[in-house]
Amino acid sequence: MPQRILVVDDDKSIIKVVRAYLEQSGYQVLTAADGEAALHMLRHERPDLVVLDVMMPNRDGWEVTRIVRGDKVLAATPIIMLTARVEDTDKIVGLELGADDYITKPFNAREVVARVNALLRRTRLDQLASAAPHVLVSGGLRLDLDGHTLTVNGQPVELTRTEFNLLETFMQNPGFTLTRDDLLEKALGYAYEGLGRALDTHIRNLRRKIETEPDAPTYIQTVYGVGYRLAGDAQ
Fold first, then answer.
1. 15-68: per-residue pLDDT in tens?
2. Looking at the whole model, is its pTM more than 0.70?
């Protein structure tokens, strides 16, 4: 069956164009015109990915994202946010809430398809992991690549797909400094355009979840002017 994409926007013309391009690319497209309808579709149709507008009636895209990431059943759903806002701080809000990517309006519909393809490709790669149990351990971190779960000092911690991919990349390269380009390519599958702070936002979110003191991290350390590394002897 074709993968299903939920497109959420209160602008009918945008839905029409995006839907047409996605269907031409072989996807099945579901649509919603506001936040409440989007949540209903998510809970009842379980789409493979959501393209979500920010400014909408009946719950905006930020609130929908917050609700999705707080729902254990829906939390792993990939989200691409559409925003007409041009300030970096506005875009970063969505990433901090757990969105996997963003696209700024006005946009080329082909770009939406390309971003959808990239995000779903990352999802498929996750699903094609070895059938044998595959667990990465560093200090109190235990990352189960098959179950797609993380425990920190024995306690389960929910991660977004992007956070999981980043942590997996770090734990596969303990003690090795990864450049920003390394992380964007290995963990995210492509480079963000026009928002150099996007990676930093994902790192900050991840630190909040795994570090006892996020401002003085034990695990994910900043290598100034280069990138980040996972401390090889993290305890």
1. 999 999 999 999 999 999 999 999 999 999 999 999 999 999 899 999 999 999
2. no
Q: How far apart are CA 226 and CA 201, in angstroms?
A: 16
- What span, in angstroms and rounded, lies between the C-alpha atoms of 228 and 222? 5
Q: pLDDT tens-digit profile of 152-198?
A: 999 999 998 889 999 999 998 899 999 888 888 777 665 555 445 77
Tokens of residue 145, six digits: 């690549």
What does the radius of gyration of the chain's CA atoms come to, in whole angstroms?
18
DSSP state of 63: H
Indicate the length of the chain as a whole number. Answer: 235
Q: Is the dihedral of CA 200, 47, 29, 83 positive or negative?
A: negative
H-helix segments, the chain: 12-24, 35-45, 61-69, 88-97, 109-127, 161-172, 180-183, 198-210
Q: Tell me the one-letter amino acid at 126.
A: D
- 189-225 burial by CB neighbour count: b if 16+ within 10 A, else e? beebeebeebbebbbbbbbeebbeeeeebbbbeeeee
Residue 31 backbone dihedrals phi, psi, to 5 degrees = -135, 155
> What angle in degrees, to the nearest 10, is found between the helix axes of 35-45 and 61-69?
30
Is the peptide bond preceding residue 106 cis, with omega within 30 degrees of 0? yes
